[in-house]
Amino acid sequence: MEVYTTxxxxxxxxxxxxxxxxxxxxxxxxxxxAAILVKTxxxxxxSKDNLISVDNFExxxxxxxxxxxxxxxxxxxxxxxxxxxxxxxxxxxxxxxKVYVERQNYNEAINSLNWIIHNSSDVNLLNIAKxxxxxxxxxxxxxxxxxxxxxxxxxxxxxxxxxxxxxDLYTKENKFDLAKKEYLKAKKLIQMFH
Length: 194
Hints:
- This protein is mainly alpha-helical.
- 82% of the residues lie in helices and 0% in strands.
- It has a domain at 7-121.
């Protein structure tokens, strides 16, 4: 490290340093500034895309809740689901399954519920889909499939629903003694909560 005794020597040293390193300092500052701009614009773009996605979800969701759902709304919902693999898509599939059941299109309802089961990470949404799917299987007399789905419901908070489903399944199979046992278990669970 050099020691400068006069002010002129210090100024000359600064000039030499600037001549030697100023280009690199400017390049580094430009790169940093560019990175900040890119990051800012990217986050604004992602936020804007997310807002558009949420807005689209809300519009489709409201239309699926109406009394008469057009085929165009169903198509828009399917497009949204295909392009957005998120929990909003799971909620739309839940609504779609309801629409399909109302139209007695049970295979499409089953597909929508299976989509939720295979793509959602929300435990309660998964259990709702499983309960609805099991009900569809019971309604269609697909008892083994219903039992398999019911067996995948592990959450304690869904034990009552699971027990009632098993009672419904046994009733539909004409196994009334087993159905009675399940319904009595459900009654005890209800009494525990009160």
